[in-house]
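Reopening: Ferredoxin--nitrite reductase still failing for me.
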Amino acid sequence: MGGDFSADQKRYLEGFVSGAQLARLRGPGAPAQAVPAEPKGPDAPSLKAMARTEGEGKKLCPEEKAKREENGLDAWPRMEAAAREGVYPKGPDILRWKYHGLFYVAPAQDSFMCRLRMPNGILTHWQVRGLADIAEIHGGGYADVTTRANLQIREIPATDGVILLEKLVDLGLTAKGSGGDNIRNVTGTPTAGIDPQELLDTRPYAKAWHHHILNTRTMYGLPRKFNVAFDGAGQIGALEDTNDIGFQAVEVLDGFGVAPGVWFRLALGGITGHKDFARDTGVILCPEDATKVADAIVRVFIDSGDRTDRKKARLKYVLDAWGFGKFLAAVEERLGAPFTRVPSEAVKPRPEADRMAHLGVRPQKQAGLNWIGIGVPVGRITAGQMRGLADIAQQLGDGDVRLTVWQNLILSGIPDARVAEAKAAIVALGLTAEADVLQAGIVACTGAAGCRFGNADTKATAKAIGAHCGPRVALDTPVNIHVTGCHNSCAQHYIGDIGLIGARVPINDEGDTVDGYTILVGGGFGTDAAIAQELFENVKAEDAPALVERLLSCWTARREGGETFAAF
Ligand code: SF4
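Support: Ran it again with your exact input. Result attached.
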């Protein structure tokens, strides 16, 4: 094979390049992934954990019984049959279909939603173009960017769910395990590999973990969902401290008995919907060991997680019950080696994330190239906009389209000389490439318009807040406004400067209610991590924009110096 590769061929080859990079990191003598053989049948770890639970005289919750009856992964032939008949799943099958990424979202919408997975939130231009076609042919003609740097396609008829999943695989994508009691989309630093301040390019590690999950059946036997994120200390955070496992790139100093340089620090137990951030364990690990360590943590969780009460079935509750010492000892036993631990003073303070870096033009570490962060109000993007962005990425950038946890998109590799052209093309799509301080911080979950748990139409409220406050409040620094529809906290209301959680607001004594919110203030993340506190209850949705405006106006009028909203 001779000659140069075309730009498209280079994009295809990127996956191999990442793999080669990881292989080099693993070293010639290191095992690729020291993972136990996969036990089957009653020896499967999840089934043993269920048997042990019952052996202790406890009652499994209905979801565990359904999983014992049939693992969702094995439901594929029945899913094909249901698609041929044009019927949606019922009862426990609703959970099983989620193992393949299909969510039946009635009564909010009588259709499927498909949640994808993409390691580190990065797509190629041809994948985005293919997804636009899929969304148009089999869905509502749009996609939603999620708070896990992922995409969801909605309004998929019963007949189309399976063919949609097949087409994803044709595109080099998958939705497997994106729902149900599984390990969710793997997030990483959105500017990995291009960020001037990053300590580590997270892409190879996110990708390795992604493929490990996909190819390890035991990883589908958890008591409940599980989140893992890799943060390379770039300008845009991955919100890793809101995950069950957060791998944080840190620089370890000389003189503490370990090789100085970049390691991952291990944080565990984040679940902000339950008011907890991942806590530092004092453990550091070589980045190439991340998959092995995450695998061992998940296996200990499979053995020890609560299978009787869904509300207590997350890793946090094992850590609360056992303490970090006992849990880490169990992981070490499984790994067959002790962890490396260093005191906090051995770790250099991490570079701070910039709360505006996901919007507007920023120089990359590659001289003469830039990324452009594109505003996508409440994360919704049409198929036409997706195609347009794919064209810009291909013609003016490096071909990548990167998603962030702030529900927006980034195009990378734009040469200095073509930035103005790219911005004009973005604006022509009805999107913005400007760093709008108010829009930068607004995120919203799916809400009642598309999710049966929603108490309010969160995306409509978030848009209304933006439209109402935009002309009335002059912000010079971002304020994070997180609008979430229920206690599942998909938009993480507890970490917002201002958090809104959907509530049914009573309007008379006869039990009638309307969409509304409880409003919280004072949350934060990263170095400003804090759980927001309730300020107002029973705020009607129609009153929320004006109330948020009052909060923001009060802060801008009375703050002293550069006092942030959180500090106010
Ligand atoms: Fe649905 Fe609740 Fe999640 Fe919003 S927070 S998407 S309403 S489950």
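The CA atoms of residues 359 and 436 lie 7 Å apart. If you still see a failure, please send the error message rather than a screenshot.
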